[in-house]
Specification:
Two copies of one chain form a homodimer.
Chain A (H helix, E strand, L loop, with lengths): L10 H8 L3 H9 L7 E2 L5 E2 L2 H15 L4 H9 L4 H35 L5 H8 L3 H12 L3 H11 L3 H23 L7 H17 L5 H13 L1 H10 L3 H17 L1
Antiparallel strand pairs in A: 1-2
Helix pairs in contact in A: 1-2, 3-4, 6-9, 9-10, 10-13, 11-12, 11-13
Chain B binds a DNA duplex (30 and 30 nucleotides) through helix 2.
DNA sequence: CTTGACCCTCACGCGGCGTGAGGCGGCACA
DNA sequence: TGTGCCGCCTCACGCCGCGTGAGGGTCAAG
């Protein structure tokens, strides 16, 4: 018969042709996936056309996302290729879905990050007036070491302008809770006033830090002892600072039972 | 200030809540990504709410496909989140494209596998007549050890029904090459006959095995010495087997110069 | 005979955990 | 007061698909 003059290729040449690395060829050899049919006397791997064909198949299947072990199965049992392809298609389709979900998730995250980017000091001034910065600095002085302050800082750091707007709105609503009770002639010990106080406490819990009824009393004291807080409240309604303090105390007593 | 009564959670509890494994928590602790703020006297990891929050962020970013190292950066530099998100979106989008390419690639592969599944013996009978099986078996007997036969087997194993149909069509065309020359009164040594022989040789090269002009002579001998081959050819045109043999010899002589 | 481009064989590294092994701690129930 | 059992701890190796050297041989050209 004829002596087939095969073209035998070394690793480097094969690597170039099939666009894989030499290390990859070594690896496939090691695990027995594609072993060169021949070796030169010096031990060089020599790949025949047949080896190349097999390798080409491996490369294709790899691109289709098959694991090397599976590829070995496929090459040795060509009859099961179709089944495998179906399964693979399903798996890849699932990954596709996951990733496209992922893209929309990232998009949503981006949207949030863009629309609601961290509130700037400007934003806060706009919402709460010029005094905000000073008040904040002083509060830091006075309460910076406390757990409550630190937790508050941690939480509010990530507040967006929208969040702060909500805080402002909630704050206004809480004030209305008190003024409504006042205007209706209810005493600070009335249920309406206590409910307003409780809403206030819960809002602090929600937005800033854990505020127990006991701690709420401390706040209440501050509203009457610190003239700036007093002024802020009394500007809304004369006597409101005192009213709020008493309501908070009444509520704290109620809550503790 | 108030004693915040934190709810401290052990690894197992955290794992359940955030749907990660305990090992994952250990890992994050090891690499310093999320370290529990506290430990019990016995060394149990105890996670605070703050730890949980951080962990929650990690879990989200992981789902978005970030590497742990990147996540550490993101958590420590929240201002760069948007940039990262953009980059990540681009990367994920690219993967999405790749994978959807992959799906269509698999689909094409599936289509091929379905439409062109390996030709069955039935198909071959249909194309080449009932004698095919016997002829094949005998050929195996006679030539099974030869390189040419083995290479032929290797190649034709993956031939589809469509391939075999093409082989049949090519074969018919080659026969016509010879009969046309015969009908035109050209001798087997004519250029037309030699060209037909050369086309025949090249077709074998293409479809079955390396067929040198020298080896082609062996085939030619077989066409006249084996009555079944003779019959096959002579059925097309009386004297064709001989004509073909001579044309092949003439062509082989021409090719060798 | 040298040079430089290849080739070889170890053998470790990476990312993100999985999966034991071997040994305490904590809590319920007897 | 034991006794189970579950959960926690700390090593430490394994996995996949190679990347990346180190340390040394081979081969063709000049």
């Amino acid at each position: 018969m004829t002596e087939r003059t095969q073209t035998l290729l070394t690793v480097g040449q094969v690597a170039d042709r099939l666009d894989v690395t030499v290390r990859t060829l070594h690896h496939y050899d090691e695990i027995g996936l594609v072993q060169p049919s021949e070796r030169s006397r010096a031990g060089y791997r020599l790949y025949t056309d047949g080896d190349l064909t097999r390798l080409q198949h491996v490369v294709v299947y790899r691109r289709l996302g098959f694991a090397l072990e599976e590829i070995a199965l496929l090459l040795d049992h060509p009859e099961s290729v179709e089944q495998h392809l179906r399964r693979q298609r399903a798996a890849v389709q699932q990954r596709l879905d996951e990733i496209s979900d992922l893209v929309t998730a990232i998009d949503r995250a981006l949207e949030r990050a863009m629309n609601d980017e961290q509130a700037t000091t400007e934003d806060l001034k706009e919402l709460f007036g010029d005094g905000f910065e000073d008040a904040h600095a002083e509060a830091e002085q006075r309460w910076g070491d406390s757990d409550a302050w630190q937790e508050s800082q941690r939480r509010t750091k990530s507040y967006t302008k929208a969040d702060w707007a909500a805080v402002k709105a909630e704050s206004d609503a809480l004030h209305r809770g008190f003024t409504d009770a006042m205007d209706a002639g209810e005493p600070p010990t009335s249920v309406a006033a206590m409910d307003a106080a409780e809403a206030h406490r819960r809002n602090i819990n929600e937005r800033f830090y854990d505020c127990s009824p006991q701690f709420h009393r401390n706040l209440a004291d501050m509203y009457t002892s610190d003239p700036r807080f007093t002024a802020t409240y009394d500007e809304i309604r004369p006597g409101m600072a005192l009213y709020v303090r008493d309501a908070i105390y009444a509520n704290a007593d109620r809550q503790e039972q």
